[in-house]
Specification:
about 20% strand, 3 domains, 434 Repressor (Amino-terminal Domain), Rossmann fold, 11 helices, elongated, 4-stranded parallel β-sheet, about 350 residues, alpha/beta
Length: about 350
């Protein structure tokens, strides 16, 4: 585990006065615009809304409360609940927060940046005590809101980039590189790749980049690839694997962006009587426990999901207990390859 100590600074949330000064109108006018009440010109309304968005200001929806007040909620914003990765992250978060007065509240983005921005806006409007949000890539407006929220923010799952405040995760580029090294060491040369949500899942994209980087250094290119914009499913894994091998029967290894489609591919190959891993090797990602009952154990890599959730919640709890405390807020965990029964070891 790699960590970098950072001394946290006391945060101050934005107020109506900040928006007033930025837009050049009174606080009362700002309030009217943000509550969509009163007689305000279109030009003034546009100026106020533009200033609020640029600052990352989110109006307080707690009736009668002061702008600086907080509730004992931690906003947890994730891409999916159907993906089996994130419930384990939530378990880790809850294990830590259950010993505090804080309660996690979950928002789901479906991997859509615009939806993430909307979910974040709504959740911040209730003045939570902290935010845990998946990923490092956000819209400019979402990043401004996170930067100006005045509360602890922890970005999780990924450490290949610069966080707004704190981050906990793994290096997905490193994960891709290490899997490529294991595959090449096992002697496989003709490699295909299958990935889901690649245009939107930045972490899968980074694994693919690290994977192809190592292959390229050894003079090997991905011979076939297929990207799927839908969810992770066994049926889709079967379908994609059949289509790829029909196109490229010379392939001797298939690398999947997650275990679910990898498991579908494994079941298809076994049904076809193909020798795994002798004729074709396979590997996925995430080490999903649900798949432990497969006829063969799929080679994979653990994404440290439970520990990510726990570490993120610990950062939030520690910062809220003492904003001036010195704590580790850049935490990179190290996943390990599980070779299973589908990747030869040499």
């Amino acid at each position: 585990m790699q960590v970098s100590p950072v001394t946290t600074e006391t945060k101050r949330p934005l107020t109506l006065r900040d928006v007033s000064e930025a837009s050049g109108v009174s606080e009362m006018t700002v309030s009217r615009v943000l509550r969509n009440r009163g007689d305000v010109s279109d030009a003034t309304r546009t100026r106020v809304l533009a200033a609020a968005k640029e600052l990352g200001y989110v109006p307080n929806k707690i009736a009668g409360a002061l702008a600086s007040s907080r509730v004992n909620l931690v906003a947890v914003i994730i891409p999916s609940l159907s993906n089996m990765v994130f419930p384990e992250v939530l378990t880790g978060i809850n294990q830590v927060l259950e010993d505090t007065e804080l309660q996690p509240v979950v928002g789901v983005t479906d991997y859509l940046p615009e939806k993430e921005e909307k979910v974040l806006y709504e959740m911040l409007s209730w003045r939570p005590s902290g935010v845990i949000i998946a990923g490092l890539e956000h819209t400019e407006a979402a990043r401004a809101m996170l930067d100006s929220a005045g509360i602890p923010v922890v970005e999780i799952m990924d450490t290949d980039g610069k966080p707004v405040d704190a981050m906990v995760g793994i290096s997905h580029r490193r994960a891709g590189r290490e899997m490529a090294q294991a595959i090449l060491k096992a002697g496989y040369q003709h490699i295909g790749f299958m990935g889901t949500k690649m245009p939107l899942d930045h972490r899968a994209r980074k694994r693919f980049e690290g994977f192809t980087e190592v292959l390229g250094k050894h003079g090997i290119e991905i011979e076939d690839r297929e990207f799927y914009s839908g969810g992770s499913a066994l049926a889709k894994g079967r379908e994609m694997t059949k289509a790829m091998l029909d196109r490229s029967p010379e392939l001797d290894f298939l690398y999947y962006s997650n275990d679910m489609i990898g498991a579908g591919g494994l079941l298809y190959l076994l049904e076809q009587g193909i020798d795994v891993p002798g004729q074709i090797g396979l590997a996925g990602f995430n080490n999903v426990e649900l798949l432990q009952g497969l006829p063969r154990k799929l080679a994979t890599m653990d994404a440290c999901r439970l520990e990510i959730g726990r570490k993120a919640a610990e950062i939030i709890a520690a910062q809220l207990a003492d904003p001036n405390t010195e704590i580790e807020t850049r935490i990179t965990l190290t996943p390990k390859i599980s070779y299973g029964d589908t990747l030869k070891r040499r």
